[in-house]
Amino acid sequence: MSVLEIIASTLGVIAVWLTVRQNPWCWPIGLVMVSLYAWFFFEAKLFSQVLLHAVFALLQLYGWWQWTRGDTGRGGRKVSCASAQEVLIGLAVAALVAVLLGALMARYTDAQFPWPDATLTAFSLLAQLGMALKRVQCWLLWIVVDVLYVGFFAWQDYWLTAGLYGLFTLLAIMGLREWRQVLVIAR
Known about the structure:
Blueprint: H1 3-20, H2 26-43, H3 47-68, H4 84-108, H5 114-132, H6 137-155, H7 159-186
Transmembrane segments: 46-65, 86-107, 139-156, 162-179
Family: Belongs to the nicotinamide ribonucleoside (NR) uptake permease (TC 4.B.1) family.
Keywords: Cell membrane, Membrane, Transmembrane, Transmembrane helix, Transport
């Protein structure tokens, strides 16, 4: 357990808690967290995770814009549901990205676990995009991905990060519940 991992984990908890509360400060705090985790994963030779966190950095900026200025032009995006077609297309694209990224990582890098790393990366990107767009379904995907990450990181003895993803799972459950309530109130 490194100081870098402790700081990144702490910021991760704060950022996800703020996301559940729909506080736009989740995005700049998340930007610092994903930057620190990119460095951490580079040192661990989990290169799909490095790539994931680089893209997460861009998505943090996109999410911040969406939540403060996007969609309505009056204070940002509102919580909504993705259509069934959006969900299916998103899952299909994430599966394709997982296969392509896994193949690239397995062939061209010395990545520790190219296939599970690439798969979790691809579906995390889909969940993060859903979060930036305030789609309630993002929380369902985060729950599945976070549970899988707990096992993935525990298997590698990254216990603090595994614990963080356990906490992320609980926060995702809370986010799903709270964002569903927002949808009910808005109707």
